[in-house]
Amino acid sequence: MKSQNKKLDHCNITTGTISFRVRYCEVDRMNAVHHSQYAAYFEMGRTELLRDNGYDYRDLEDQGILLVIAKLEIRYKAPAQYDDELELTTKVAKIDRVRIEHEYELVRPKDRCLIAQAKTTLVHVDRNGKIQPVPNFLCPENG
Amino acid sequence: MKSQNKKLDHCNITTGTISFRVRYCEVDRMNAVHHSQYAAYFEMGRTELLRDNGYDYRDLEDQGILLVIAKLEIRYKAPAQYDDELELTTKVAKIDRVRIEHEYELVRPKDRCLIAQAKTTLVHVDRNGKIQPVPNFLCPENG
Amino acid sequence: MKSQNKKLDHCNITTGTISFRVRYCEVDRMNAVHHSQYAAYFEMGRTELLRDNGYDYRDLEDQGILLVIAKLEIRYKAPAQYDDELELTTKVAKIDRVRIEHEYELVRPKDRCLIAQAKTTLVHVDRNGKIQPVPNFLCPENG
Amino acid sequence: MKSQNKKLDHCNITTGTISFRVRYCEVDRMNAVHHSQYAAYFEMGRTELLRDNGYDYRDLEDQGILLVIAKLEIRYKAPAQYDDELELTTKVAKIDRVRIEHEYELVRPKDRCLIAQAKTTLVHVDRNGKIQPVPNFLCPENG
Asked: At the N or C end, where does chain C have fewer CB atoms within 10 A?
């Protein structure tokens, strides 16, 4: 975590986009990205959005700020294939006292095909799994 | 597929339970089953429910009857850990002309802990990805 | 770990066989089990061989006895496919002061096809990753 | 495949380096990249080395040129962790009539730590799994 000895900066950047290629091992015998794989992509999107705001999720977790998935919802629109370049947009949709909701849009820029849309709900828990209030610095300043 | 030369039997069994152990590689650095892994468990549940009805999903797929995931929704209730024995109940919740909905309940029998609840929507597509009517034999006889 | 307050039993059982089905998500676009997946099967083989001897690897690890892979060697003989039932034989090939070597044979009983042969070398490390002597109870009594 | 209607270019570039970050889902409960994951990294290395030479492995495979793993050998030197940036160097070590051997070195540039060294042997098979001579264009011009 940056700025350890002073007031933490807020996460004011609420949308981010990453690009990546589909790996061989992520594709199933129908030649489509296996549907379980998308959750890993969304996780990468959240990690990079946090990094855009100056935080490493690894450090947060090492300090006991665990953000766990409480709910996942994915709508699969079209299959993505091995070696496709995909673009994932991750957006903080809502933060309240105990929950952070993200929305995702996964597209294949080459043909502007929408691959999937998704939503996740995270909760902040301590090392014992007890739900904790969402840390203030994770919210936008005027959020 | 069984009974290739006569009228296919209907899938009258609509609920099934499987047991399995959490593998080491399925667990993350929080010592919990990674949330992307559950989709693979649910897939096993559907495969075995189909087998209970006398069909191999492998054969269906080889014959061009592809059942693809259109929607997935998971609610994570409690973490499961490495080497836990889990029990998954898979239920056909609804079938209409183009969609099959399953509901899932994943529990850890040892302490009767509810690990997750989920829903999936499958659609039947041909090899070109075009949506097809759900084959009649996949529906219960009086369904 | 069993027998916590007395002398630990030795791991005298040095060979074990497990059966399992190939999962959909383990198969790639060539319709073959992805070659990275085999390492997870071998890990299951080691876990169950330890259980045959009365020990849970989870407990060992929680007590700080970490067995990490130092070397892996796999020879792929024939592809395994989705829904195949496979049989894995795991054997302790050699134990010395700092290393445990296992050998594996993965077959498909249906057609007696040899799928893969493999070897792993494990070392015992503490939580800081420092190599430790192999605990005595992991060796056969007259080994 | 490029240059479909003329003589294919040889793969004269025999070494390539890629960088990537360790994903959350790739790490196990010891907080280390799971040992099965490395094979997927090496596969990425081969894919990108082929791309450096102007070929897409996806296209080769779609045309029936299947390169399958016959042998994999990994020596694990140090654990890599979640969010580490890693650098993988992939080198064609040897090509003969029926085999392509690659060597790999995986390092963490931040602390110059050697994570793993590996070797793979690929063979060229047709869609029926029958071994075929290695296509000439995959060899360096004077190789």
From this structure: C
